[in-house]
Amino acid sequence: MKTLVTESVAKAAGFIKRGEIVAFPTETVYGLGANVYNGEAVKKIYNAKGRAFDNPLIVHVASKVDIYDLAAEVPKLARDIINEMFPGPITVILRKNEIISGLVTAGLDTIAVRMPASKIARDLINQAGVPIAAPSANLSGSPSPTTFKHVLEDFEGVIPCVLKGPDAKHGLESTVIDCTTSLPHILRPGVVTVEDLRSFSKMVEYVQNPGKVKSPGIKYRHYSPKAKVKIFDSGKHPEVSDPDRTAYIGLTHFTKLKGFSKLKSKLVCKSPAEYGKKLFSFFRRCDMDGIKIIYCESVEEQGIGLAIMNRLGRATKTGS
Ligand code: TXA
Ligand code: MG
Q: Which residues have CB under 8 Å from 174's CB, separation 6+?
């Protein structure tokens, strides 16, 4: 299959209308989308990614009113978040409306809904005329794509269309919050922080292990480069024995780290936001460069640091 790379929203929307899948930019990461109401099209997403059918998709809308077609009910907390934070890098879990196929929600009676801040993503949804179900546009397990080139690394010749847009502004997937329970749980931390969400309700908690029923995606290895990812505390920096095949990403410039100056790949970030934004593209570049070990400096688990440590933790998991 030839993959069309286009900047034309109309052309990309045409694919969605014809029941095909399209990769498209958002402010978090690139998504791989299909018409939420077309089961055959949704299946193509799972097949292209090699994604397990028990891992549900996020449904993307272009306007807030569309949420009421997807959800059976929208509790007060969700309403407040939608009013104040949509469009943005945040996903709310709601009870689903019956018309939504269990294929999208992996058989759950809940649905994940997000309205991207990215204008090109919303233009695509508008022109397609339907909400778009979309996971991140990467092969299952690999780092999420933050540029259209990353999408092509995984799907050139496999999907019919990539809508080319700007690089992702945030580089980390949306924060996911479950609003269906009396105690609202953050299932996946992101650039919308726990602290931000506590301003809506003090009851909001981040649960590290929500269990596979609550968030099926959690049990899968994710975000992983081929290289081995090792997390270390800044105080205990590692010895580098093979600098040509070792990489470093973090906030500290280790001038005294033995072998540090010889490292082939290193990325010293100025802030946690930059660390989060560049993490996945750094992972992908390391794989291209034949890096074997990526040392990642740990950061404080607060603000966006919580999302960074979550992704690093998942990237170090072995198995699937
Ligand atoms: O930023 C993002 O969220 C990107 C862009 C494309 O919007 N999408 C994304 O999708 O990261 P994906 O499929 O890679 O991650 C969706 C996460 C998974 O962990 C999945 O298990 C969870 O959301 N999820 C989806 N529906 C759910 C539901 N009904 N209940 C609990 N978790 C759900
Ligand atoms: Mg993903």
A: 28, 58, 89, 90, 91, 114, 188, 190, 192
